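Supplementary Text 2. Reproducibility record for the structural model of the 230-residue chain.

All settings were left at their defaults, and a single model was retained for analysis rather than an ensemble. We include the record here because the model underlies the residue-level annotations in Supplementary Table 4.
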Amino acid sequence: MKYVAQVTEQAPERAWTGRAAERSPAVQRSRSRTIAQARHIVKAAEHLLETQGGQFTTQQLIKEAGVALQTFYRCFAGKDELLLAVLEDLIAQGSLDMLRLAEGIDDPVARLRFFVTWPIELLEHNADANKVVTAEHWRLHQLYPEDVARATQHFSDLIEPEIEAAAAAGVLRPVDPPRDAAMITKLVMAMVHHYAFIGLGDGVHVVTDHLWRFCLGALGGNAAVVIDAE
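Retained model, structure tokens:
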């Protein structure tokens, strides 16, 4: 799943930005400068992932970013910590992008449908980059499950309010909105991993329609809700 992160000093802080800043002695650099450098390195890593895959070296990275090796290690303990930062930034920025795209959708069920299906829709674009990010996501999940869970929480935080709003309106009957959001997040991520590699053979709309109907049923929706949300 490929998202283009908007890297600015005014962008909201992620968990990794705090970790990067904590590695820098306060007497040598300000926290804001360290975070700005870390963001610049993350942006360079995203470009390398897109153009060269996940096998780029630290030397290639610092050349792409135009920073010294000591600057990299001031911000990140190593390549995996950097890739965790990239993963969190892609998911967080992707969630923000989806939120902006859904601004004109007032119905919470329709918004939920958009959020759940959009990551699958994105698989039609830049397939090679999607495979790289997906492969790194799975590899990092096996090594750093808590960090990856923290990164994917951004997506859960996006869909949970829509589940709660639809429940308040009486059109969905979720069992436990936070847990339901977490389960849907895992399902969506698993489907992205699956279809990133085998392709959307049945067509993206067939896949997304089945995914949505499955999630809708799990949330206590009914046929009328399906019609209203489409």
